[in-house]
Design goal:
4-stranded parallel sheet; single chain; Rossmann fold; 2 domains; 375 residues; alpha/beta
Length: 375
């Protein structure tokens, strides 16, 4: 498994990669479903080294000092070097943590596609994602022995846009974190929260517009923008230095995983107005803690919420503002949303994710074998 997305300041994809690896190691140790699994985690970077963690102690670690950009270019454009060459080992399966294949001579090839927003909006992406993903994703997905997605929504997009047949797609939703919900009788929070990388597809403009509208007619709690700022975030951060958002909206920067539970617990509600999410991990994390959620009616967010939150049109700041105001003012509604969210979050487990991923690996091996027999 390509572990590189989890190396430094992991966001949704990096957290998914780490937690999935942890769950697979636990499944192998328990001997349930994963008793034949021997997991190797591949890490490669010029600056960032793999950090050993107790929960990954059952995995073999291969850490190379090859710059990420160099290796990505070689893998994406040259389809070289093969995993077997780079790791000096043989594998049944190679698992890429992004939509493009991890080259292999003999192993079955699995790719993870978290979302396909980069196809419709390449201008919202950068670096290798802009250069390689739109041009190569279709051929790579069609050649993969198995395509893994986090939601039924993304499965449908892979079928529709990449023309991958449904019998080669596996849905493997992430699990909820092992956090205790906050007490319904305790403090309900002091701020409104957005959590995610500050990038165009997260729709920060509309969120700031909505909060500005609300600020002109009522007293508001602070809005916290929690997440790493990309180059595209400069205009949004500049808005925070000017009235009426000055002093009302704060950017906290990247939040370490160990601090996220407390960040959610201090929130009155989470607002996630993204144009498209392949899953939406902050929504699941907020539900786990018992935080009401206002989210866009796009992508996989309605699927994850399962009717436990308020859905809004992301292009309508007034709808976002009205939904925020409704949760702030209607304490009974907020409590009901929190309770339903906690119950909904319990249906997402990393044990289940590991089971689904192991089944995807088995199907990939069978698919690889049948292709060789046909050839």
């Amino acid at each position: 498994m390509d572990y590189r997305p989890a190396l430094r300041e992991p966001s949704g994809a990096g957290e998914y990669t780490h937690q999935l690896a942890r769950a697979l190691v636990a499944a192998a140790a328990a001997g349930e479903n994963g008793d034949h699994l021997r997991l190797t985690l591949f890490s490669s970077s010029w600056k960032d080294r793999f950090v050993e963690r107790p929960e990954l102690a059952g995995a073999t670690i291969i850490d190379r000092r090859v710059p990420v950009k160099v290796l990505n270019f070689a893998w994406h454009r040259l389809e070289w070097p093969a995993a077997e060459t780079l790791a000096r080992a043989q594998f049944d399966v190679t698992h890429s943590s992004h939509p493009l294949l991890l080259p292999a001579r003999d192993a079955a090839q699995v790719v993870t596609i978290h979302d396909l927003n980069f196809l419709a909006h390449p201008e919202r992406t950068r670096a290798e994602i802009r250069r390689d993903y739109p041009a190569l994703v279709r051929s790579h997905a069609q050649r993969a022995d198995r395509v893994v997605v986090p939601s039924s929504f993304t499965a449908g997009e892979v079928q529709r846009l990449l023309e991958v047949p449904p019998d080669r797609i596996s849905v493997c939703a992430p699990g909820a974190p092992a956090w205790e919900p906050r007490s319904p009788d305790g403090p309900v929070g002091t701020y409104v929260l957005f959590l995610g990388t500050l990038e165009p597809r997260k729709n920060i403009d509309a969120l700031l517009d909505a909060y500005e509208q609300l600020s002109l007619r009522r007293h508001l709690p602070p809005l916290l923008l929690a997440g790493r700022a990309t180059d595209a975030a400069r205009g949004w951060l500049d808005r925070l230095e000017r009235p009426p958002l000055q002093g009302l909206v704060r950017h906290t920067g990247y939040v370490e995983p160990s601090r996220r539970r407390d960040l959610y617990a201090g929130a009155l509600l989470l607002v996630q107005p993204s144009f498209e999410e392949g899953f939406g991990l902050p929504v699941l994390e907020a539900m786990t803690v018992g935080v009401p959620v206002v989210a866009a009616n796009r992508g996989a967010l309605p699927e994850v919420l399962g009717g436990t939150g308020l859905l809004v049109e992301p292009n309508a700041p007034q709808q976002i503002a009205d939904a925020i105001e409704r949760v702030l003012d209607d304490h009974r509604l907020a409590a009901e949303m929190a309770a339903r969210g906690i119950e909904r979050a319990r249906s997402f487990t990393w044990t289940g994710a590991a089971h689904h991923m192991l089944e995807a690996y088995r199907r990939a091996v069978l698919s690889r074998g049948s292709r060789h027999e046909t050839a």
